Amino acid sequence: MKTRLSLNQAKEEPVTETAQTRVASRIRLQIPVFLRGYDAKGLEFIELTRTLNISARGACITSGHFLKLGQTVQLTIPSPATSSSSLVPSETPPIMAKVRRQEALGELRVFGLEFLRSLE
User: Closest Cα partner for 30 from 48, 50, 59?
Assistant: First the structure.
């Protein structure tokens, strides 16, 4: 069992890591994504937003919608409208994710998402 010490607990009991501990490293990268799901009132929406950071197992995003913890949402990365190259796909496959964390920063809502399938 791994333990972790915070700066305030260096001389106290170690804290056991929880399921919230990240397994994959995060990259601070803003990527535009379409977020599709149902808000807290049950209304379907699609919103163009962005990631604040991303890893192989999840992402932190912003949203103007209220989401529930544990609910599943869908992320799609927009691709160029037209491309003459066969190297650029016409669309990206959707990434399914669960809402694991939420936080309000003024009028902005930030959500921690866990991908249902790792991007590795």
Answer: 50
